[in-house]
Amino acid sequence: MKNLHLFDLEKVDNIVSPEHFEEITLSSPATKIFTDFKHNVPLKIEGTTLAVDALNLMIKSHVKMQMVVSADDEFIGVISTKELSERHIVSEVAKGTPRNMLLVEDMMLPRESLTVFDYQELEKSKVSDVVFALEQNGLNHCLVVDRATHQIRGVISSSDIARKLHLPILLNKSNSFSRIFNVIHGKVA
């Protein structure tokens, strides 16, 4: 057995993170800016969770989007803080469902309504291609699917791209792909 030594913690300048070692730019491979579920556990929530509970949980954990699954862990859609906003909840209540009865599955974007990137195409693309495509479609999140294996491979998030490109993230504004596109092109954000 090797005898390891313990040292006193002296002057520490910073904590290392992956961004210190790999600079992401608009010409970087697009695979550098997506959360790959082969390396990161996807955030999932059951569709039968109360919408208000889901929103509170997402706010506390600083999460803006989750995968919605059935009781059998089958993917049925996605939910974001956008769909759980007060405006959307009030809209559903106006249709007759009491606030305390609204479920995630009532508010989510169902899988049938989602558009996705193909992983194999993403492998041949650049960050700028992704930002442009998502800005054109007005999305804040987009799933990445491996169509060859019929699996959801990961997700791309506007907040993650802004952070990886070292763009200013404004806490009081949505970090949409449109905002990222405008910042990159020198337009007022």
UniProtKB/TrEMBL annotation:
It comes from the Bacteria. InterPro entries: CBS_dom, CBS_dom_sf. Keywords: CBS domain. Residues 108-174 form the CBS domain. This is CBS domain-containing protein. It comes from Thalassotalea profundi. The lineage of its organism: Bacteria, Pseudomonadati, Pseudomonadota, Gammaproteobacteria, Alteromonadales.
